[in-house]
Structures are given as C-alpha cells and as structure tokens.
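Re: the request from the purification team.
They wanted to know what the chain is likely to look like in 3D before they choose a buffer screen. I agreed to run a prediction and write the result into the notebook, where they can find it.
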Amino acid sequence: MTFPAYIHLGPVVLHPHVAFEALAYSSGYYLYRRQRRSGDVVDARARWWIVGAAILGGFIGSHLLAAFEEPSRSLTHWPQLRLVFGGKTIVGGLIGALLTVEWAKRLLGITVATGDLFAVPLILGIGIGRIGCFLSGLDDQSYGIPTGLPWGIDLGDGVRRHPTQLYEMLLLAGLGGMLVSRLGLNATAGDRFKCFMVAYMGCRLLVDVIKPAVRFGGLSAIQWTCLAVLVYYAPHVPRLIAEVRRG
C-alpha cells in the first residue's frame, strides 16, 4: 500500500484527508439529525444558535491550538496567517466549541445541558476522519513515532511507525459502544457529553505520548490542553463512573 492512498472516482482524484473529512462531517450531521428526532432539551431556534456557536468555536479553537503545537514555526511565520493557522487539531476544536456554546447559552438564558446530542455523532465523525488521517500517511501530522512492534506501519519513508490513528479509532469504537449501551435515556442530562470529553481527552493524553511533538515540561500543547480539560471535569468523574456501572 502506498501513502497517501488517493481515492479515484472516475476521472476525479481525491486526497483521502479531504474525502474522509467530508464524509465525517456529513455522517456526524446525519446521525445528529436522527437522534434529535427522538427529542431535544431546547427548541429548534435555540439549537441552531448552539450549533452555530459550536461551528464558530470549533473552527477558531482547532486552528489556534494547532498554531501552539509548533511555537517556533508560528513565530517565524506569524505575518503569514495562512501558514500559522494552516493546521487543525480535534482537541482545539472541541475546546473552542465548548467555550462558544457556553457563551451562547449564557446569552440565550439556557441553563440545561445541551451537549448529549453531539456525543455519539462526534465519535462517529472523528473515527471516520481518522481513516483519512491514516490514509494520508506523512501528509498528515497525526502519525506516531518509530516502533519495532510487529504492527508498525511504513507510511512511505521506510520507517515503521505506531499507527496512532488506528489506536484512536479502536478507542473511539469502544467509547461509542459504551455510551450507547451503558448510558441510556435515563442518564442525567449532559452526562453523555461529559463522558465523551473525559474519555477522549484521556485517550489523547495517552496516545499523543507516541506522537512526534514539541514538548514543554514533558507534554505537548495538546496534552497540556487535555490535562486541563480532565481537571475541569474531575469533580464529575466519580458520578459518571457510577452511572456507567449502573447502566
């Protein structure tokens, strides 16, 4: 297999990252719409404000945290905003979306938790997107460090690396199954989203150990961000664990 693994649709040739990112967005949105038919904690107008805030915050956060991943490169190219903010990171997108949604809810006077509808669609979307990251090979910055393990994969430079994208996909599949099977309709409002955030940030904190990155105090910018989110949600963790067991 060669990387990037371009996708051929007749005369059209698509980069795998572009193709699977589009599929990730469309699949996640489709699942979100299907779930919303079963009910929502806010009306349609408020939900669209929340979705809009999430999109805006996700866009800003994903690019902003990516710029902090390589501070020396960002400082060197700071006059060229296209280069500085050219990358994206899922962790930054999630944090940015969370902050702007909470800001929008405060403006709208919404006090109920509204994130549950996003949890499983996000898992589906991220998982599909990681297929594109993997097939992109070295074009994508989510690959792992070299390894001598038998499942190491050569992405085209002659070096066998940890397939970190596949690790993340497996963890997401387990998380999605747990949320669907263990946290049913009787779960406390907001707990599905909290479980998703805690589990995903914990996953990234661990998986990013075996990714090449600029590190400060032993952790990358993404790992420090994941750690901050885990600290933020820490008071809820004992209750979430109890609810999962009870489910």
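For the purification team: The radius of gyration is 19 Å.
Please add any questions underneath this entry.
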